[in-house]
């Protein structure tokens, strides 16, 4: 009896697995045509100076307008794009669209683009980015490229060289989601980072315990001594913004200052964020 039940459970599990695999296949098939059907859109979220409230940059965040599912967020489809290799053509589109959009933004505002580690494998980032800059006419000094800690593990000399060359053009290299990976602090020094984004999970813990506050202060201290600009992600409350500013964090991003919105709805006015300290 136990055995029979075990078999039944397995069968149910099997069926569920089939359903998941099937759903993934359908999603992937839809993804294959999404680019040519023009279903991808870029939303933009402001990054503000925590002292002055000025909008310093906007981050391009990919959205998929699915005919049936409606607006789909990147968490649901970026992994699929990465596994299927579709991230390369889609990522190229993102870079081009963001640069095109940025040309029409106020000249002092930078645009930040997320780059997947898969896009950096077997391809030259410089080879992708420089023709786009030439085509769109965007000043390379207005572009930020956001990469995650996983690239620190791939000790890729060609990539490092590309990052240095881009940096020479004035494009800034940003370490995104800092603290969620497992990078050794010594690696950070080897890469030419201009900015570091402290992950939202740290910001969420702010003010909850002395230990959490100490960790974030230490990270901000590290950026200062490495002469890297610190950005805090996922700021939702004024208290978080005040604590971060007091700790010396330079830039902030989060719903407090504005959610990701379509280009047409983007507001470049300084945020009147922070009550006098
Ligand atoms: P990310 O680069 O760390 O982007 C920040 C994410 O945090 C965005 O989620 C943003 O909407 C969200 N966020 C910002 N402020 C707040 C806040 O105050 N509260 C909360 N709860 N969330 C906030 P989104 O747009 O869903 O993007 C998720 C991730 O998908 C991004 O994380 C990035 O890793 C990836 N992604 C987005 N667009 C692209 C893209 O064009 N290419 C690649 N390769 N990855 C992308
Ligand atoms: Mg990012
Ligand atoms: Mg991030
Ligand atoms: Mg994040």
From TrEMBL:
Residues 24-274 form the EAL domain. It comes from the Bacteria. This is EAL domain-containing protein. It comes from Phreatobacter aquaticus.
């Amino acid at each position: 009896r136990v055995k029979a039940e075990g078999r039944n459970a397995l069968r149910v599990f099997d069926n569920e697995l089939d359903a998941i695999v099937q759903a993934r296949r359908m999603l992937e098939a839809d993804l294959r045509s999404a680019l040519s059907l023009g279903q991808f859109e870029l939303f933009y979220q402001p990054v503000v100076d925590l002292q002055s409230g000025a909008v310093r940059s906007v981050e391009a965040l990919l959205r998929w307008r699915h005919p049936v599912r409606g607006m789909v967020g990147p968490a649901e489809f970026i992994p699929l794009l990465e596994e299927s290799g579709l991230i390369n053509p889609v990522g190229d589109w993102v870079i081009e669209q963001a640069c095109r959009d940025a040309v029409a933004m106020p000249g002092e505002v930078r645009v930040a683009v997320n780059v997947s580690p898969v896009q950096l494998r077997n391809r030259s980032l410089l080879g992708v980015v420089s023709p786009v800059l030439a085509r769109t006419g965007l000043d390379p000094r207005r572009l930020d490229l956001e990469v995650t800690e996983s690239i620190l593990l791939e000790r890729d000399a060609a990539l490092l060289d590309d990052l240095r060359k881009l940096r020479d053009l004035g494009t800034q290299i940003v370490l995104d989601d800092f603290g969620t990976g497992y990078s050794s602090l010594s690696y950070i020094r080897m890469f030419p980072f201009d900015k570091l984004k402290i992950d939202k999970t740290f910001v969420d813990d702010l003010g909850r315990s002395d230990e959490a506050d100490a960790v974030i202060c230490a990270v901000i201290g590290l950026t200062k001594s490495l002469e890297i600009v610190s950005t805090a992600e996922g700021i939702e409350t004024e208290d978080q913004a005040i604590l971060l500013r007091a700790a010396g964090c330079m830039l902030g991003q989060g719903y407090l200052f504005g959610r990701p919105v379509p280009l047409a709805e983007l507001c470049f006015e300084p945020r009147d964020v922070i009550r006098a300290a």
